[in-house]
Amino acid sequence: MSVTETAGAKDLTGELQDALINRLGRDCFRMWFGQITQCRRAGRDVIVDVAAQFALDRIGSRYMGDLRQAVADICGEGVGVSLQLAASKPEPAAAETAVQADPAETTSTDSAAVDDADDPPKRAAAPRRRARSEPPVDNVQPLLQVSSFQTTGSDDPLPARRRRVASWDQIVVGKSNKLAATAARMICDTPGSASPLFLWGTHGTGKTQLMDVVATELRRRHRLRRVISMTAEEFTNDFIGSVTGSGLPGFRRRYRDVDALLIDEVQFLPGKRATSREMLYTIDSIVRAGKQLVFAADRPPMEIPGLGQDLAGRMAGGMVCSMTPLDHEMRTQMLQQLCEAEDLGIDHQMLADIAGNVCGDGRVVSGIACRLKALVSMHDEPVTYDQITEILSDLISIGSSSYGFADIQTAVCNTMGLPKDALQSKGQSRNVSQARMLAMYLAREHTGATYGDIGKYFGQRSHSAVIAATRRIAGDVEKGKAFSIGNRNIPAKQVLESVQNMLRSG
């Protein structure tokens, strides 16, 4: 091997080590990946030699996805990765040490017991005594000798909860997500230019998909090694594991010394005082360093109950972008894109008709494409529209609305940040009164129920009160008046569209 090749291998060794430590933590890395002796090319595969059978089995069953992801982050697409027991290496004594708790195995079921680890001083366990053979935390040495690393793009290295998106080509941009997509492209071009970026919207609007693209772009285009993408629940579980096991200093180094931190499902944080406090300090540290932060949740940070003004203010301190359910044009484009990728040969007008009768949840559109693929494989001739509507009967609605009073009530309360039973109460505050009138207006538009039935459901209101409410909302929308939601005034038309989008998304 030439001097240049040797230097390249050393660089890749350090990058791979950093990537694995960022994903799994130092303790987990040391325990399992410390048994790897070398990595070598064999045709179109990279073979990883592991000194101990126990470690090999553990990596293969639990950490193979993380290993592939770390390699992909560094080298992009290419050949596969496989494990092999090192032929001439004796199994180190470290593999025979007593069983230790693996921080990566802390599950969400522990949160009930520890979450008010929420006073770390009370919950923290006594410091674990380091074994003589264990190196200091700050001196983890490169253990992998890498020659030429790549992985296949066909293997999906991310956890099953999300599908990896490799490029912008798979993102459908339209009216509902144009601002969010523009902001994401901006930080992909110049990391840190808008930090934090906060994406919010109901389920199925593409928040997680857009975050995956951002993470991929930061790793591949800018060669950023420390890009962490996770959910708020995973952040919480790692924090709890650190409080009770490996220690907070290592946790803080892991999340504050990063190039970019992306956290999804922020609405999971309220009620976890210590975790929220740690998140706040983490945000401060990353922002001061000029690094990139991206968050996502089902509503704006200032409207997440129990999040706290300090934390919500920091999350809203960069750019906040809403993402609404996919409109008809976006659903059509997405469905056509998915069907073309599978070469299903279904007429575009037929796909447009289908897209016009489904909700705006991107996951539902993806599920429809999967069913269409199965339908096409069942027949030797082109499928008909009747066959399609039959197989999709539970996902599409043609010519009728399936909304009920309860659906409308839930959508209005979620949009306006009210308790679910507020619209059926006797409350007369301005925000409750406006929300109730909006719900009555939508009930009249979508259900065809009588004024009397609508009034009876929404707090025993009279027939005339419902008529007045529907006229009032129609006038507010036409004149461009605003609704009061939290501390903001939002145009009535925009609120109405948000509720209708939420209804369409299910």
TrEMBL record:
GO molecular function: ATP binding; DNA replication origin binding; lipid binding
Domain Chromosomal replication initiator DnaA C-terminal: 404-473
Keywords: ATP-binding, Cytoplasm, DNA replication, DNA-binding, Lipid-binding, Nucleotide-binding
Chain segments carrying region Disordered: 92-160
Compositionally biased region (Polar residues): 142-154
Gene3D superfamilies referenced in this protein's UniProt entry, alphabetically: 1.10.1750.10, 1.10.8.60, 3.30.300.180, P-loop containing nucleotide triphosphate hydrolases
Pfam family, one: Bac_DnaA
GO CC, one annotated term: plasma membrane
One BP term from GO: DNA replication initiation
InterPro entries: Chromosome_initiator_DnaA-like (IPR020591), Chromosome_initiator_DnaA_CS (IPR018312), DnaA_C (IPR013159), DnaA_dom (IPR013317), DnaA_N_sf (IPR038454), P-loop_NTPase (IPR027417), Trp_repressor/repl_initiator (IPR010921)
Family designation: Belongs to the DnaA family.
Task of the protein: Plays an essential role in the initiation and regulation of chromosomal replication. ATP-DnaA binds to the origin of replication (oriC) to initiate formation of the DNA replication initiation complex once per cell cycle. Binds the DnaA box (a 9 base pair repeat at the origin) and separates the double-stranded (ds)DNA. Forms a right-handed helical filament on oriC DNA; dsDNA binds to the exterior of the filament while single-stranded (ss)DNA is stabiized in the filament's interior.
Protein name per the record: Chromosomal replication initiator protein DnaA
Species in which this protein is naturally found: Rosistilla ulvae
